[in-house]
Amino acid sequence: MLASLQTVLITPRIIIKSLSFVRILFVTSEAYPLIKTGGLADVSGSLPAALRGLGADIRILIPGYQQVIDKLPDARPVAHIDNLPLIGAVTLMLAEMPDTGVPVYIIHCPSLYQRAGGPYLDASGRDWEDNPLRFGILSRVAAILSCRNSPLSDWIPDILHCNDWQSGLAPAYLHYMPDTHARSMISLHNLAFQGCYPAHWVERLWLPTESYQMHGLEYHHQLSFLKAGIYYADSITTVSPTYAREIQTSQYGFGLEGLLASRAHEIHGILNGIETQEWNPATDPYLVTQYDDRHLDNKNAVKNALQSQLGLSVNTETPLLGVVSRLTHQKGLDMFLSVAETVLQQGCQIALLGGGEAVLEQGFKALALLYPNQVSVNIGYNEPLSHQIMAGVDIFIMPSRFEPCGLNQMYGLRYGTPPVVTPTGGLADSVVDTNAETLRNGTATGFVMDAPAPGALLSSIEHALAYYRNQKSWRKIQRNGMRLDLGWAHSAQAYIALYQQLMGQ
Ligand code: ADP
Q1: Rounded to whole angstroms, what are the CA distances from 148 to 105, 152, 155, 237?
Q2: Band of residue 12 on the pLDDT scale cut at 50, 70, 90
Q3: Residue-wise pLDDT tens digits, 295-349
Q4: How many angstroms separate the most distant Cα atoms in the chain?
Q5: How far apart are CA 98 and CA 111, in angstroms?
Q6: Residue 286 Cβ < 6 Å to ligand 1
Q7: Residue 469: CB partners within 8 Å, gap ≥ 6?
Q8: CA spacing 20 to 30 A to 183: which of 19, 219, 232, 372?
Q9: Is the CB of 353 under 6 A from ligand 1?
């Protein structure tokens, strides 16, 4: 029944036949277009669809937040799941993802999930106090569905694919349940978020007392959801090969580097793809005009429209630098703020969209007040504007201190907007620095800083500006990026190979 890895790569027809036997439950706390706070939602929206396209029988499991319930009016109850800590029971609903049709199970439990606010934070930006319960239930339901005596007797997964800390307890629950069927995998999208809670949650969530130890889910006298996932999952993936190596070092491991290094053989780095239909300058409905790698002059019209919309001086020649990002320490935008005036004095403009830490929001807003014709700052989340900035700016700025994969640099590549990035994680794996050699051999796609430091950022921006002034070279860099295959096909095949490897063990 199982194809070998070689078969997976060489004979797609055989894969599709064998894959129809592989059932995967993809557990996530956010999925585009149902609910999104960051890159995990993009991955959860696209990867299952790509896997299904290869023949996998995959279903998503997600909490029934109000936003999810509202977007899936056809959801119908399919099972009653009891034996759950503190809340007793929930109803499981089944629907299909909009656009892709991937089946999605929704945990219907209004007292836990149907509230005004985000999936993790309340309206004032504080973590929901009962997050350990909310995501403990997500994890336990996932594990129950992966056992032979699951209430969904007609669909029991072979692979339980968890994502980040929110479903990190699922492999632990599964480990201690009798009658388990599935093998488990956890994908690490960002190690900075670990889901650590006071030890009393171990008992409250019905985790076995013996699991609360160094060789288990204890982390500095707390229960760590993420450590549980890393410790108990049969296989671990991260979202880029470089990040897979980085997290085994103290600089990037957030204290989990020892455990991760001890599991080095089970860690696989698979670079995320992007949703190439959604992010396509040739069809993007948010743009005043569309363009592709053969009609790059149209990009100027998008730029002028953006300048006008944002209140910047309308001028095609002026280099326009863009940012779309969470404004947090991780994203390194404090470095950009510290060199921004120097960049503006060189005649550039800046368009920023983002939200997050107050000090960064205020810093950029103050800059916009000082340079109203050169700087536009939009605080908040705005999907259409994120597309317009990606298309309308000339250079995309992404100086992350660490970046598990990063999607925005890939959107920049696809939109003919070469990115300036740090040499870390997925940025290092997706952007090729421009120099005489890479320009000649056709691989140059952007600008890679020497280090995560303001001076290095400034010199990379100046390096980019020098190429920008040379229209012929600039077009080459733009086209190299636009012609890359950034879709999910390669990554999805790599996940399939891993699933099959796991099932064969
Ligand atoms: P992360 O998940 O760490 O925030 P990624 O680059 O992996 O970073 O993904 C960020 C996703 O969120 C992208 O799809 C990006 O376009 C989107 N995004 C971030 N901030 C905003 C914003 N303020 N408005 C619209 N989209 C945003």
Answers
A1: 18, 9, 10, 25
A2: very low
A3: 999 999 999 999 999 999 999 999 999 999 999 999 999 999 999 999 999 999 9
A4: 67
A5: 25
A6: no
A7: none
A8: 219
A9: yes
Residue 46 CB less than 6 A away from ligand 1: no
Residue nearest to atom 19 of ligand 1 (CA): 325
381 lines ligand 1 (CB under 6 A): yes
Check pocket membership of 407 for ligand 1, CB cut-off 6 A. Answer: yes
Do 69 and 106 form a contact (C-beta atoms < 8 A)? yes
Closest by alpha carbon to 2, among 18, 26, 25, 22?
A: 18
Q: Which of 227, 220, 158, 219 is nearest to 188 (CA)?
A: 227
SS3 category, 393: coil
In the chain the domains, ranked by start, together with CATH numbers, are: 23-273+489-504 (3.40.50.2000), 298-482 (3.40.50.2000)
Task: Tell me, rounded to whole angstroms, the distance of Cα 142 from its chain centroid.
Answer: 21
pTM for the full model? 0.91
Report which ligand 1 atom has the smallest distance to the Cα of 408. 6
Give the closest residue (by CA) to ligand 1 atom 20. Answer: 325
Determine which helix (DSSP H) or strand (DSSP E) holds 333, and give its type and residue range: helix 333-345
Phi, psi of 276 (to 5 degrees): -80, -15
Question: From the CB of 329, is ligand 1 less than 6 Å away?
Answer: no
Which atom of ligand 1 is nearest the CA belonging to 36?
12
Tens digit of each residue's pLDDT (9 = 90 or more) over 340-375: 999 999 999 999 999 999 999 999 999 999 999 999
Any atom of ligand 1 within 6 Å of the Cβ of 38 = yes
Q: Give the pLDDT confidence score for residue 16 in this predicted structure.
A: 41
Structural element, H or E, at residue 439: helix 436-440
